[in-house]
User: Fold this.
Amino acid sequence: MESESGDRALLERKVRRAFQVLVLQRGRNPGVKGWEMKRHLGRDYRKIIEVLSEDVAPMGLEVFEVKGPDGTDDSSRFLLRFRDPPTVSEAEMSGIRIDDLAVLAATIAFVNSKSGRVSRREVEQFLREKFPRWRVDFSLDRYVKRGYLDQDDRGMVHIGWRTRAEVDEKTLMTMILSRAQEPAKK
Assistant:
């Protein structure tokens, strides 16, 4: 009996620790790398993350894993995110301007329409038809810096880890396509 209650107490402490590790932001990017979780929680960190994800579900949150570029557990990134996407008014409360969100949504759609890789020049040309030049340059640089977009040394843009974590790309594309098929209002 005592061993079982001791194991339960240890698990609760580790789950609490996992929550603290995920909430406290270090550096510019949200979330925690797999190797950091292993260091803070031990080898069984995935079990602890599963328990934590169940614990935060009633609050509308989940622990989400973004696979790293090499696909290993150590390079994966874990973060807390909303189970349901935020509404426009909730997104506005986050401090992100609606026109910046529009630039990001248009860029994600454009990159996905080009099989996931497109030159930055093509992205800029596409966006400048819809947004001012200064907004395009500023927004693209910001989204690359924040991890929503990746840009390699050849100037090719592709979807970043943070977009994969925070944006439901399938729903975004469905919404864009459904708006494109609506008849124009007079």
Q: What stands out?
A: The first helix runs from residue 2 to 23. The chain has a mean pLDDT of 84.
